[in-house]
Amino acid sequence: MGLKILLTGKNRKIIKDVGEHLESDRGYTTVKCDPSKTALFELTLAELPKVIIICLGDETSETVKVYNVMKNIVRQGNCVVIVIANQEDEKFFIKYTELRRVLFLSRPVSLFALYEKLSEIEEKMKKNKENNLSSFREFINEEAERRDRKKKVLVVDDDTEQLILIKEQLDEFYDVTPVKSGEAAFKYLFKHTPDIMLLDYLMPEMDGPEVLRKMHTIEEYAKIPVVFLTGMTEKNAVLKTLIELQPQGYIVKPAKKSELVAKIIDVLG
C-alpha cells in the first residue's frame, strides 16, 4: 500500500531532497504545497494525505500558526504529521502550534529513520484494513449518537478564505464540513446528512439557487434546512429567491461569529 505524502514548509531544499528520495527510493506519491493558509487548507482537503511532512526554516510565530489550519483535517483523517527541524526550530514550533500530535525528525535528515517510521505507518494502515474485514459485526446506536453529537453543518462556498473563516468561527459548537462547489456538496450529501447547509448564493458552474432547486427534487435532501451566504450586492436577488425556493433565510458575508451561531440556533432550535 503506497502512502500519499504532503510536503510543505519554508525549507525548500529539504522538501526537494526528501521528496526526490521518497519517490525514487520508496515509490511514494508526494504532493508539494506552499506554506500558506489557503494552499494548505485546499490541498489537505483535496488530497487527504496519510502523512504530512513540514520542513521548517526561518519561521516566525505567524508562519508557524499557518499550519494550524490543518488541525481538524489531520484529526479527522487519521493523518500523521512529521516536522523536520533543528532543536531551536522544534522549541519555536512547540510554542506556537495548535496541532495535537507531531513527530519531530532532527536535521540533518536521517532517511533510514524516516523510512522506518513510514514503514511503521504503512503496516498500521494494512492492519487496520485487515481488521475491518474480520468477523466482528459493529452496531452503532444512531439514536444515542444523534443525542450526543454536535450538529453537522455543511458549508458550500467557492471562496476558500470564507470557508476557512466560517469553519474557524463554528468549530467550537458544530461539526463543520467545508466544500468548494455544488458538485462537491452533492458528493457529501450522497454519504452524509447535515443538520443544516450554509450555501453560497453566487458560485461558478452551479450557483446556490441551482443547488437548492436540485435538492428539492430529491426527497432525502429536500428537508435539509438551507441558509444562503450572500454579499450585499446580491441582496435584492436573494429576496426574490427566498419567495421562490423558500430556504430558511440568508446571511450577509462576511458574517460575525455571533450572527452565524444565532442564525443556526434560530433554524435548528
Q: What do you see in this structure?
A:
The strands form two sheets. A five-stranded parallel beta sheet has the order 2-1-3-4-5, sandwiched between helices. A five-stranded parallel beta sheet has the order 7-6-8-9-10. It is of the alpha/beta class. Strand 1 (4-9), helix 1 and strand 2 (29-33) form a beta-alpha-beta unit. It is elongated and about 65 Å long. The chain contains 13 helices and ten strands. The protein folds into two domains: 4-131, 3-Layer(aba) Sandwich (Rossmann fold), CATH 3.40.50; 142-268, Rossmann fold (3-Layer(aba) Sandwich). 49% of the residues lie in helices and 18% in strands.
In short:
Helices cover 49% and strands 18% of the residues.
Keywords summarizing the entry:
single chain, 269 residues, Rossmann fold, 5-stranded parallel beta sheet, 13 helices, 10 strands, elongated
Beta-strand percentage? 15-25%
Give me the CATH superfamily of the largest domain. Answer: Response regulator
Q: From the coordinates shown, what is the CATH architecture of the largest domain?
A: 3-Layer(aba) Sandwich
Give the domain tally.
2
- Give the CATH topology of the largest domain: Rossmann fold
Number of helical regions = 13
Biggest sheet statistics: 5 strands, parallel
What's the N-to-C terminus distance? Answer: 46 Å
What is the C-level CATH assignment of the largest domain?
Alpha Beta
Helix/strand layout:
Blueprint: E1 4-9, H1 12-26, E2 29-33, H2 37-47, E3 51-55, H3 61-66, H4 71-76, E4 80-85, H5 87-96, E5 103-106, H6 111-131, H7 142-148, E6 152-156, H8 160-170, E7 175-179, H9 182-191, E8 196-200, H10 208-216, H11 219-222, E9 226-230, H12 235-245, E10 250-252, H13 257-268
Parallel strand pairs: 1-2, 1-3, 3-4, 4-5, 6-7, 6-8, 8-9, 9-10
